[in-house]
Amino acid sequence: MQMRRALCVFLLLCLFWPTSALAYRLPRIGLFVYNAEDAFMQTVCARVLEVAQGRAHVTLMDGANSQILQNDQVYQMLREGVDALIINPVDRTTAVYLTRAAMRYQVPVVFINREPLYEDLVLYDRAYYVGNDPRESGTMSGQLIADYFKAHPEADKNGDGIIQYVMLKGEPGHQDAELRTIYSVKALEAAGFEVQNLVEEPAMWVRALAQERMSHIIASYGNRIECVLSNNDEMALGAIDALKAAGYFTEGRFMPVVGVDATAQALEALKEGTLLGTVLNDAINQGNAILLLAVAAITGDFSDYPYEIVDNHYVWVPYRIVTADTIH
Prior knowledge:
The protein is an alpha/beta fold. It has helices at about 1-25, 40-50, 65-80, 95-105, 120, 135-150, 175-190, 205-220, 235-245, 265-270, 285-300; strands at about 30-35, 55-60, 85, 110, 125-130, 160-170, 195-200, 225-230, 255-260, 280, 315, 320.
């Protein structure tokens, strides 16, 4: 009799273990980042890990700019029984394969920072994207430059009524890079300015690469450059490094440079007067939204989720302009 009772208990545990186990343990979440050296993603991941304390066990994996490596990392963690995926894809156009993998294992997937194609995301009712609208950040970048030229007409060095600008672009094909580039220029034109693109140079979000390329641009265009638009702060800081080496930011030689992200180093540059402005890509709020969404999606209970889910798949975190006068 006792043996029969023990066998029944064992069979019941086997039957209900996946559900009951989750009720008594913290869920396991895989966090996959395209490149752990990316300054913005470091801030986002740090916040995700902080919010996860007491809510989930999060394992951080570095894709090292290799989609093949990231795919292997995701599949391995799925085989090990992870409860949810948070993925910053190396190549957003291949997210469909990761979505299908999550479907096959019936775990939720939250994409971050690099937005999958719409048709790839909506394949699966437990697939989500947390980010913000890059059109908004591009528009704000353009507004910063427009406001500066309105307040400082002498910034038009040659007096031709045209803003001659340099564009430092992120990774070609990345939705943020493409849309920030387009909408920053549109904002200048909407403000009534005629513009001329002296050069558009991809610097892949990297400060050192931006410094190198900006040095060549300065050598080629010299005083024809009237401002620098950058898709992120790291490249903006690289441009400032090159401009400092060329004698700017001394004896009244100022060059308006704008970025996006409002990283700690960018805020320091605002305070020292070398960066004109940046746009807060709210890593803290994004980290909150990401982790809490993954946990809610595991249980299916969104009643306490503090962010709006748009069209059942999207969570948008708004941008904000930051200048030396508005740092807090």
